[in-house]
Design brief:
Layout: H1 6-34, H2 38-41, H3 45-50, H4 53-65, E1 70-73, E2 85-90, E3 95-103, E4 109-110, H5 112-124, E5 129-134, E6 137-138, H6 140-145, E7 151-154, H7 156-165
Parallel strand pairs: 3-5, 4-6, 5-7
Antiparallel strand pairs: 1-2, 2-3
Amino acid sequence: MQNYTTLEIYSQAILIFFIGYFLLQGSMLFYMFTHNSLLNRNKTIKKLKKLAWDEFELLCMEFFSKQGWQVTGNEKKGADGGIDIWMHKRSLFQTKSAIVQCKRYEDSLVTIKVVREMYGLMHEHEVEWVYIVTTSRFTKECYKFIEDKNMILIDGNELIKQMKKL
C-alpha cells in the first residue's frame, strides 16, 4: 500500500473538486441550451412563423402560463375539436376558465368562421373566456363579432409585444 503525503491528498482533492465543478457547469449549460424557453427564442414574427404547429401551441401554453393561468394542452392527437389549450386561473374569490385556439399561419388571415366556432365552443364547454392566438392577423369581421363578448384576439404583432413584456 502506498502512503500519500498531505500535499498529494490536498492536490487530489482540489483536482476532484474542479473536475466536479466543471462537470456541473457543463451540465447546467447543456440544460439551459436544450431547455431554453420558446418565448425567449422566438421574439419576432419571422421566427414564430417558422415554428411547427405543435411548437406554436407549446409557445402559447408557456405564454399563458407566465400570465398566471394553469394551462393544459389538448390531449387528443389530430382533430382537437377547435380547442388547443384549456386554462384555469384561481384567485381568492373566483375561478376563471378559458379555452384557446392557436393558428400558426404564414400569411392567411384568421376568418370569422374560426371565431364563430370558438364562440360556440365557449358556450358548449361553459367557459368564461376564449382566446384566439395567431402568427398572422384577423379579418375585420372578427373584431366586429367579438364586441361585447368574452373573446380576445391576439394577432402576431400583439403577441410579440406581449411576449416582450413577460
